[in-house]
Write a structure and sequence with these properties.
585 residues, alpha+beta, Threonyl-tRNA Synthetase, Chain A, domain 2, BirA Bifunctional Protein, domain 2, Rossmann fold, 3 domains, eight-stranded mixed sheet, globular
Length: 585
């Protein structure tokens, strides 16, 4: 952890203790039960059992004021090691007792930290002098939520108080402004307003249903990826949505993901699973024959739905679902071909795709964690070799990258592309993975120049990763203002009055005949209402037809992004739109 990040983490951890102290002073330590409170991204929280007391967001200001009032007394920390018996005698609630017993069973030291007269069970990681180091205006209590003790729904529901914390008031205000903008751009909100997707209680949580407009988005994105892949000689394949248990046992997925699978037992007692990933299926397609080295690489592409039994509490709009569509591809090649294949995916698919949406990309080299070899397939030597290939590729391309230890897939290291959106948030998007383990498990080979069998390797490449999750990112990145080529409705044709309908209808038909996605608004509403509807639906262009336009044999073109563009002939508008669509602007 870098020094600045460590300091911020310590600041947030300190404030979690300060929160617990303030709550204890207000609601009385003998009437509540404190549990634990860690630092988290953007802030901190503390889980508390308030007994019969019901705490809501309305109590936050009072608690926050008490935190600021007692902060000057928090001058420094006293650290103490105590025995299990002392700890159990001091912390007289079942939650702390559970933690104390676990610490003791692990053979670790039991430690307490005291500041401002408040003592908590803790292993450390604080600001040394809180009163001096914490800006009283750099933190804010955020919300109250319910949380099961230790995240287990079988346990009691506790009250979780969340707080936000940064080093300065300015950073806190910047975050709040960003979050406010993010709430306006929330893909769940915009998805409903723009009629892109729905969720149905009868279908089930985490199972999105795509409307006609949303389906246009999905298909256009998928088609764009295919356009880019087709230039690299990929071939489309198709696979079923269920598979026998044995396939995933052989690939290693069953052992790693068996608790996340939707399982099916047939009438004959055979165990199947809804596929959570596609690679073992593509391996079976490759393994249908013995290949010559002259026939490699073999490149398969497949956009298909996968299924994972995510917990209900983890589901979130399109970001985390139970059914998601991957734009998946797998390359089967020799090791000497790997760098070329990786480089072409990077240059000719990943970068053009993300640049067209204005995303800035950074690279994370995702490596295995040598301290936990049990999490991965294969031996250390294979991992070192695969990781060195990816590292060399990044270095040869003079690309700035950072390493993420423990971020690898269980079968191989990855090139993960991190996109920064218009709000400055970073998302992991495209991924290219080098797999030396599954070809070993399935005994995949080619016949080389010497007539001998040679072990091949496998490259996994998902450009959007999940179309659903990518759309959640894209919707928020562009605030629903899709570029013309992608917009479900590209142009709305608006006659001012019913007497203008005939001329406007001809314009509309011309656009449709040239595959421009247009709507004709002949509703008996005034012009302002029709224009407002076009703006609310974030349509890139609308065409207005009135007396002046018919007299001049032209139309008035207005842009969502550039305002009124004036009177233009029908032919000029068509040419402009088709050129913009072609260039994906």
């Amino acid at each position: 952890m870098e020094k600045k990040e460590e300091k911020l983490n310590n600041l947030r951890h300190t404030l979690a203790h300060l929160l617990a102290s303030a709550v204890g002073e207000i609601y009385k330590f003998d009437k509540i039960k404190l549990t634990l409170g860690p630092a988290i991204e953007n802030g901190f929280y503390y889980d508390i059992d308030f007994g019969e007391e019901k705490i809501s967001d309305s109590a936050l200001q009072k608690i926050e004021d008490r935190m600021r009032k007692i902060l000057p007394k928090w001058t420094d920390w006293q650290h103490k090691e105590i025995s299990k018996e002392e700890a159990l005698a001091f912390f007289k609630n079942e939650y702390k007792a559970e933690l104390i017993n676990e610490i003791s069973d692990r053979g670790e030291k039991i430690t307490t930290y005291t500041c401002g007269g408040f003592t908590d069970l803790c292993r450390g990681g604080h600001l040394e002098h809180p009163a001096q180091e914490i800006d009283p205006l750099s933190f804010k209590l955020d919300r109250v939520a319910g949380a099961y003790w230790r995240g287990d729904e079988k346990n009691k529901m506790l009250t979780r108080i969340y707080g936000l914390a940064f080093e300065t008031k300015k950073e806190l205000e910047a975050y709040l402004t960003q979050r406010e903008e993010a709430e306006k751009r929330d893909h769940k909100k915009l998805g409903k307003e723009l009629d892109l997707f729905v969720f149905s209680e009868l279908v089930g949580s985490g199972l999105p249903l795509w409307t006609p407009k949303g389906t246009i988005l999905r298909n256009l994105l998928d088609d764009y990826i295919w356009e880019l892949r087709k230039k690299l000689d990929y071939m489309k394949v198709e696979i079923p949505h269920i598979t026998k248990k044995e396939l995933y046992e052989k690939s290693g997925h069953w052992d790693k993901f068996k608790n996340e699978l939707f399982r099916i037992t047939t009438r004959e007692g055979h165990e199947f699973a809804m596929k959570p990933m596609n690679c073992p299926h593509h391996i079976q397609i490759f393994d249908r024959k013995q290949w010559s080295y002259k026939e490699l690489p073999q490149r398969y592409a497949n956009s298909t739905t996968c299924y994972r039994d995510e917990q209900t509490g983890e589901l979130s709009g399109l970001s985390r679902v139970r059914a998601f569509t991957q734009d998946d591809a797998h390359v089967f090649c020799r090791m000497i071909q790997v760098k070329k294949e990786l480089g072409e995916i990077w240059d000719k698919v990943v970068e053009p795709f993300y640049k067209s949406f204005g995303f800035n990309l950074k690279l994370r080299l995702s490596l295995h964690d040598p301290a936990h070899p049990e999490k991965y397939l294969g031996d250390a030597k294979s991992w070192e070799h695969a990781e060195s290939v990816l590292r060399e590729l990044a270095q040869e391309r003079k690309t700035e990258f950072f390493e993420g230890v423990g971020e690898a897939a269980f079968y191989g290291p990855k090139l993960d592309f991190m996109a920064t959106d218009s709000l400055g948030r970073q998302w992991q998007v495209a991924t290219i993975q080098l797999d030396m383990n599954q070809p070993e498990r399935f005994d995949l080979t080619c016949v080389n120049e010497k007539g001998e069998k040679e072990r091949i390797v496998m490259i996994h490449a998902a450009i959007m990763g999940s179309i659903d999750r990518f759309l959640s990112i894209l919707i928020e990145h562009v605030a629903g203002n899709f570029p013309l080529w992608l917009a479900p409705v590209q142009v709305k044709v608006i006659p001012v009055r019913t007497s203008h309908n005939e001329y406007a209808k001809k314009v509309f038909e011309m656009l449709k005949e040239n595959n421009v996605r247009a709507e004709f608004d002949d509703a008996e509403e005034n012009l302002g209402t029709k224009v407002r509807d076009a703006k609310n639906n974030k349509i890139p262009y609308w065409i207005v037809v009135g007396d002046k336009e018919i007299e001049a044999d032209k139309v008035t073109l207005e842009s969502r992004d550039k305002g009124q563009l004036g009177q233009i002939s029908k032919e000029e508008i068509l040419s402009k739109l088709l050129e913009e669509i072609k260039n994906k602007k």
